[in-house]
């Protein structure tokens, strides 16, 4: 039922997804945020909700514009369910802002396949990664994605090697100059803190969704990659770029200094697209239903553990 309903892109699908996001957002806010119910508190949360809605809009634009998915609503649905499984991801404002900046970078990286305005895309994507790095320092690793995209479309030149570096350094340089101007320069702002302590993942609230997502991902990547490499189409370049994107996101999760589930925000974008593509090639309707219902059940159960 649920798989068939979201198998097409319709206004009612989008409305239900937005309602689901609002419900998850309200539940996460009142169960995780321990602040007084003041006007200022509600205003801040409304701003965050608007930011999340903008995030969905940007993601939908990226996947439609670059042909990362067919005409269905699976990506947005899976994205919302992933957020629901890791509610700390929507109460960490720092990561939300960094993630939004990275989305603006992804928008340019995935469009490299068109071979138009390559230099502008390289600069813009690296510029946004530079801004994300100022907010969340480990974001700098996504510069690898820029060079991967350039390599996949065979646009590696001396100029195209230096353009991303210039774009990446530009916002960091401007910010450094600003701090020097106000006499508040502190190198610790860009300190790369990390932690290899995964004890928090022993909690069922994190262990269950992590096991579900990683299990589905491993199966989906194997099955879908075999299908894609046997078909000679342009989506292969985007698919391999998605796999590198996923790998980079996993590295950032491993290095993240705070392991409370919010760090999984970085993995939601490639995960949702990979799983959605897997759902598209499954012929067994009953399996699609079980796949999505299990996601929905785990999302609901998390709040009772």
Descriptive account of the structure:
This protein has helices spanning 2-5, 11-32, 39-65, 74-85, 93-109, 118-135, 143-152, 158-181, 204-229, 235-255, 265-281, 285-301. By secondary structure, the protein is mostly helical. The chain has one domain (2-304). The longest helix is centred in the N-terminal third of the chain and has 27 residues, at 39-65. The chain is globular and about 60 Å long.
Q: Characteristics of this structure?
A:
single chain; 305 residues; mainly alpha; 12 helices
Draw up the topology in text.
Blueprint: H1 2-5, H2 11-32, H3 39-65, H4 74-85, H5 93-109, H6 118-135, H7 143-152, H8 158-181, H9 204-229, H10 235-255, H11 265-281, H12 285-301
Helix pairs in contact: 2-4, 3-5, 4-11, 4-12, 5-6, 6-8, 7-8, 7-10, 9-10, 9-11, 10-11
End-to-end span in angstroms?
A: 27 Å
How much of the sequence lies in strands comes to under 5%
How many structural domains can be distinguished in the coordinates?
Answer: 1
Q: Low-confidence parts, pLDDT < 50 over ≥5 residues?
A: none
What count of helical segments does DSSP give? 12
Helix content range:
over 70%
**Mean pLDDT value:** 89
**Global shape:** globular
Characterize the biggest β-sheet.
Answer: none
Helical/strand content category? mainly alpha
Q: Report the C-alpha radius of gyration, rounded.
A: 20 Å
* Topology order in helix (H) and strand (E) letters: HHHHHHHHHHHH
Number of strands: 0
Summarize the structure.
This protein is mainly α. It contains twelve helices and no strands.
């Amino acid at each position: 039922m649920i798989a068939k309903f979201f198998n097409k892109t319709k206004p009612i699908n989008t409305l239900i997804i937005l309602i689901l996001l609002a419900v998850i957002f309200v539940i996460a806010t009142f169960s995780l945020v321990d602040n007084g119910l003041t006007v200022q508190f509600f205003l801040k949360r409304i701003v965050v909700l608007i930011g999340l809605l903008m995030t969905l809009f940007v993601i939908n634009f990226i996947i439609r514009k670059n042909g990362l998915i067919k005409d269905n609503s699976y990506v947005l649905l899976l994205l919302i369910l992933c957020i629901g499984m890791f509610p700390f991801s929507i109460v960490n404002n720092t990561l939300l802002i960094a993630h939004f900046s990275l989305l603006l970078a992804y928008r340019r990286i995935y469009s490299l396949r068109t071979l138009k305005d390559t230099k502008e895309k390289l600069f813009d994507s690296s510029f946004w990664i530079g801004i994300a790095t100022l907010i969340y320092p480990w974001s700098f690793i996504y510069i690898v994605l820029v060079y991967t995209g350039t390599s996949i479309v065979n646009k590696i030149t001396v100029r195209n090697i230096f353009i991303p570096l210039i774009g990446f350094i530009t916002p960091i340089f401007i910010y450094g100059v600003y701090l020097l101007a106000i006499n508040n320069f502190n190198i610790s702002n860009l300190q790369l803190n990390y932690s290899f302590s995964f004890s928090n993942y022993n909690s069922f609230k994190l262990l269950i969704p992590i096991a579900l997502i990683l299990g589905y991902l491993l199966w989906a990547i194997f099955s879908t990659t075999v299908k894609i490499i046997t078909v000679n189409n342009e989506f292969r370049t985007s698919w391999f770029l998605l796999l590198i994107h996923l790998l980079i996101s996993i590295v950032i999760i491993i290095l993240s200094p705070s392991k409370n589930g919010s760090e999984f925000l970085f993995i939601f974008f490639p995960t949702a697209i990979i799983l959605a593509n897997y759902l598209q090639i499954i012929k067994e309707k009953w399996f699609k239903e079980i796949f999505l219902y299990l996601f929905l059940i785990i999302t609901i159960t998390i709040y009772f553990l």
